[in-house]
Fold:
Amino acid sequence: MPGDRGGRGPVKNRVIVLSDGTWLAGASLEPDAWDVFVDRSGDQGQTWTASALIERDPAIFSGRGAIQPALWESAPGLVHMLVRTTCGRVGRSDSTDGGRSWSPLYPTDLTSNNSGLDLARLQDGVLALVCNPVAKGRTPISILLSSDNGQSWPRRLDLETEAGEYSYPAIVPTAVGMAITYTWKRERIAFWMGSVEQIPPEG
Structure:
C-alpha cells in the first residue's frame, strides 16, 4: 500500500499553496487502519511526492485512526493540520519544514464525532473551522474561530441545529469572511457565505 501513495494530489480537502509556491495536499490511507500523510508538489500539480505516514500512537488514537487532513500555513514553512479521527478528539500535527516532515499526531481539545471537517486561514490570520463539534451524530454543523493558531476556539456559530445529518463541509476564505458548503441531510448541497462579524464573540 505505501508504494501506491505518491502521485495523486488532493483527496478530500483543498490544496494549499505555501509562501514559497509549494502545493500541499492532505491525504490518507483507509484500509483496516487509517493513517494520514501529505502530498507535495513543486511544479503546480504536475507531479507529487508523498511524505512519510504521520506517526500515530494507537493507544491515543484508538479505533481505526485518522483521515482527511485540513491544512494551513501560519508562517513561512510552518504548516499544520487538523484531522478527522475515531478517538473522540480532532487530531493535529505540525511541520517546520514546509510539509516535508511532521510531528507525531496528537489530540486537541476539540470534540470529534468521526466526521469530515475543513479549515481555512482567513485574510486577517484567523482560522475558521467547519465541523460537527459533538461526540455523536452530525448535528449541529458549526463554524469555530481561532485567533491563536488553533490553540483555542472560543467563537462559534451553528449553521444547522435541526435534527438530521449535516456533513462533509468545505470552506474557502473570502474578502470579508468565508464561503462554506456542506451536505444537507444527504439530500442536497447547502451553501453559506458570511463575514467574521456574524460569528458571536467569545462569552
About this structure: The mean pLDDT is 93. The longest strand covers residues 66-75.
